[in-house]
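HUMAN: Mind sharing a backbone?

ASSISTANT:
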Amino acid sequence: MHTNGIERGWYWEYPWLDLLMHFWGGVIVGLLVLWGSERVWGVRLSLAAVVLAALFVGIAWEVFEYALGLIEVPRDVYIKDTAIDLILDTLGGSVAALCRRRT
């Protein structure tokens, strides 16, 4: 989905797609961290650890985008966009952690 979003210009045509991708990215990272911690290392992580892992990956992604010069917006827009992206990464990680607690 991300590759298509870039190649076909969907991120610019549909600005909400970036928000959706950050949320689902947080969910996927959270679920992978939960799976890895329980199945590979035999450790059950806290909700906070899962959320922090999703936030860490989100921050790493933002640094990656910045380092490659993929950001082409004014600084004030970039700061706001990055903050929203990180909130959605965190929210996605929270959803993953809360889903795990239910099972």
Remarks:
- The radius of gyration is 15 Å.
- The first helix runs from residue 2 to 7.
